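Fold these two proteins, one after the other.
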Amino acid sequence: MDLQLDSSGVEGYHSGTQIARVLTERWMKENMYCPHCGNPHISQFENNRPVADFYCPACRNEYELKSKNGNLGNKITDGAYETMIARITGNQNPDFLFMSYAKADCRVWNLILVPKHFFVPAVIERRKPLPPTAHRAGWVGCNILIGQIPQQGRISIVSNGCIADAAAVIRSVNASRRLETGDLNCRGWLMDVLNCINRLPQVFTLEEMYRFEEMLQHHHPDNHNIRPKIRQQLQLLRDRGFVEFLGNGSYRRLA
C-alpha cells in the first residue's frame, strides 16, 4: 500500500472538490484491498451511482468513500439527510471508508472502515436547510457523527500515516459482524450500550453500567425498563463475544 496520492492527470479539473475526488478514488482503486475477504483490489462502480462507490469483485461487498483534507474530526459531511436515513432504516447502506489526506504533500494519513451495521439514525445529524437564495433552496444535508460510533466499529486501516496489518484489519471486520442485526431498535441499543462500556475500565460492574441509565432513557424514551434492558444487552454482548461475565455483577470488555 503506497500512501502517496498520484496527482498526475488532473490538469483539466478546476474544482478543488473534483480534483480531490479523482485523487482519492484513484488511490482506492490502486491500493485498497477488500477488508472483508482480503481480495487484493476493490473495483469502482460507474460514476453517480446512488448507493456506493466501490465493490469487491470477489465477495461483492460494497463501499462508499468519504474523504477530507486535514483531520477527520468527529463528524464528516454527507449528502441528503432523508436519503441517508432511508438507507439506514432500510438496511441498504454500504460500508463506509473515511479518509483524511494532506493536500500539501498529497498523502493519505488516515483511513477507517465503519461497517454498515454500526449505522443508526442517532449518528446522522440533520443540517440546516439551504437558504432561499441558494441554488438548491430548502435542501437538507447531513453530517455523519463518526465520534458517536463505538470504537469496535471504527476499524483503522491507516492511522497517522502508519499502515495497519491487513490480516488484523480483516479479523476485526469479521469479529464486528457478530453485531449484525436487521432490527434497527436492537442495533441502536447494542451501539448505545457498547459506547457506555467503552467509557468504563476494561473490568467493570453492573452498578457502573447503571450510571448511564438517565442517558439511555433519553436515547430511548419509549422504554421504561432501562436497567433490565442494560442487563439484556450485556447478555447479548456476552453471547457475541464482546464482554465476559466474571460473576458477582462484574464484566470484562473483550473487544
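Now the second one:
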Amino acid sequence: MVLKTSDHTAPTPAEPPALSVKLVIAGGFGVGKTTLVGAVSETPMLGTEAQMTEASIGVDELGPKSAKTTTTVAMDWGRLSLDPGLLLYLFGAPGQDRFWFLWDDLVRGAVGAIVLADTRNLESSFPAINYFEQRGDIPFTVAVNRFDGQLTHPLNQVRDALDLDPAIPLSDCDARQRGDVLAVLRDLISHALSAELAH
C-alpha cells in the first residue's frame, strides 16, 4: 500500500471581517461636506445634489465669494478602508435648517461625527455643534475647512469663538485634499475610542 501525500496545501485561516464604522460629516450650508466625503471615498460617492434655483434666494444664503451652484438635499455617502480591518461609511448631512429633521435618522448608529466649519461663516457651525453637545452620545470633533488653502484665523481664536469645550478636538484641513481628510478622520476615530474607553 502506497500512501500519497496530498497536493493541497493546508487552508489558511480566514481573515476576520472588517469592522464597519459609521461616521457623520455635519456642518452648515456650503462648508464643504460633500467635497470632504468625495475626497476620500474609494467608491463613487453617492450624493443627492440638486441644482440651486432662484427659489433658494433668501433661503439658502451663501457667502459673497461662493461659487456653489448645487446643494445636498438628503445626504452624501462614501466608503473608505482607513486601515486593514476598519471600514468607514461616511454620511454627509445636509446643512440647511429645513433638512434638520433628517439628522436623527442619519446619525443613528454613528460612532462619531465631524463638524466642518468655515471661518467666513462661523455661526453656521453652531447648530451642528449644539446638536451633538445636546445629544451627548456621539463623540465629535470640529475641523476648519481651509478654503483656498488658507487658514484665516488661528485655531485658538476659532475655539474661543465657538465656545468649544477643551475636550473637543479642533483641527484644520483642506476638504479637497485626501491626506488632510484622512488625518481628520483618524483624529475622530482616536477621539471616539478614547470616549468609549472613558465610559
